[in-house]
Amino acid sequence: MTEADIPTVRGGAARGSGRRPKVVRMSVELPLWRALTGYRILTFCYTFALVAFSYPHYAHPLGAAAYMGTLTVWMALTWRRTTSAERCTRRFLVIDLTLVVGGILLTSLVDTHARIMGGSPTLPSIWAASAVLGFAIKGGWRWAAAASSAVAVANLIERQELARGTIHNVVLVWVASVAIGYVVEVARASERTLARALQIEAATRERERLARDIHDSVLQVLAMVQRRGAAIGGEAAELGRMAGEQEVALRTLVSGGLVGPQRVAAPDGAADAVAPATGAGPPPTGRTGPVRPAPVTGPCDIRALLAPYAGAGVTFSEPGAPVELPAAAAAELAAAVGAALDNVRVHAGAAARAWILVEDEPDAVLVTVRDDGPGIAEGRLADAEREGRLGVALSIRGRLRELGGSADWISVPGQGTEVELKVPKGAAPGGTRRGRARERE
């Protein structure tokens, strides 16, 4: 597995741009290749010095010099081949291993028998392990076992006896290379699992973003057509019925198809009866669609985004000084407030009143949306989410979760509902600040 094989996600999807999260590349295997390159260079220098020091003691010193000359040229031409998996090909590894095995066998020809029996190192010395490690990192423990076995056989032939020291060295190289190969395979499996998890996370975040946008536009329009059609009757009723069917299908799609939406007939037969704060209906009276502020950059005063929601049935209270948030976070918070007001209009009735209160805390911005409607029955929010209703799950809670904030529902049946939306200052969609949306019933 190479560096380009492991994707990881940094940052969230660009809000309103339709772009996917930025993808960068990483790999925990890359440091192993760099370590192998350093090991090859250092051990080659050690081997070169060792052969030079022992040069007068060889039986055929010119043979040792010829081997070291060949090894020097090989290292000069190929030292970069072990810096990545792409460069370290199977052909290169085979040639590298051939040089190791050939050097070990050549030792018995160029060195004296007395020095060999006395434990003198072979010509490649500890550089021989570099070829075995290359097989281990490239192909895992099976390749490492095959390469180390070849080196072990060559050492036994060179020593011509099963000495304790020889067996010790052979077993040590074999076990170490197999262990490293196994660790590499485990690391690769972990990287594949991580890459898959990151892909799923990115896809889930994108699905949630699209679901929020759909809920704020298409689903609300379909719900409005369904209710108006049922109220008008005639051919409009049939149009409303078809709009309701499409709403159900679309809710199932954007919610991931995990649970099929369940229809609950309202007493008047007009719309589905759902709990307050589920976000199934159209915008409040006086608006033809959700308020969508124009894109801005830099800090944004949240008061300017929430002021258009004020009207005959909505009271807006704000501090005297600007309440600034990053533009993207302010837009998301304003959209969540709009979804909460939509719920008031749909589920508390056109006669219900709502109050918006903006508070500028030292480390966060708190927006409270309160109404005097009938309140939320215990457990109804969870039931609405299971039915595929996306107002609380995505348009409100999802937005605040991605900002690192929280969304709290405080409701007593018969006494209205209060929604507290809290966003930390400096938060931005997809940022590092994370929070869990809490729900209090």
From TrEMBL:
Q: Where is the DUF5931 domain?
A: 22-195
What transmembrane ranges does the database entry give? 32-53, 59-79, 91-110, 122-141, 162-184
Pfam family, any one:
HisKA_3
Molecular-function GO terms, alphabetical: kinase activity
Catalytic activity from the UniProt record: ATP + protein L-histidine = ADP + protein N-phospho-L-histidine
User: For this protein, what is the EC number?
Assistant: 2.7.13.3
Q: Where is the Histidine kinase/HSP90-like ATPase domain?
A: 332-425
Just give the chief location class: cytoplasm
Is Kinase included in the keywords of this UniProt record?
Answer: yes
Q: What is this protein called?
A: Oxygen sensor histidine kinase NreB
Top-level class of the enzyme under EC nomenclature: transferase
Domain Signal transduction histidine kinase subgroup 3 dimerisation and phosphoacceptor per the UniProt entry, residue ranges: 206-253
Per the entry, what this protein does is: Member of the two-component regulatory system NreB/NreC involved in the control of dissimilatory nitrate/nitrite reduction in response to oxygen. NreB functions as a direct oxygen sensor histidine kinase which is autophosphorylated, in the absence of oxygen, probably at the conserved histidine residue, and transfers its phosphate group probably to a conserved aspartate residue of NreC. NreB/NreC activates the expression of the nitrate (narGHJI) and nitrite (nir) reductase operons, as well as the putative nitrate transporter gene narT.
Which residue ranges are recorded for the region named Disordered?
272-292, 422-441
Keywords attached to this entry: 4Fe-4S, Cytoplasm, Iron, Iron-sulfur, Kinase, Membrane, Metal-binding, Transferase, Transmembrane, Transmembrane helix, Two-component regulatory system
Cofactor(s) listed in the protein's UniProt record: [4Fe-4S] cluster
- Compartment(s) of residence: Cytoplasm
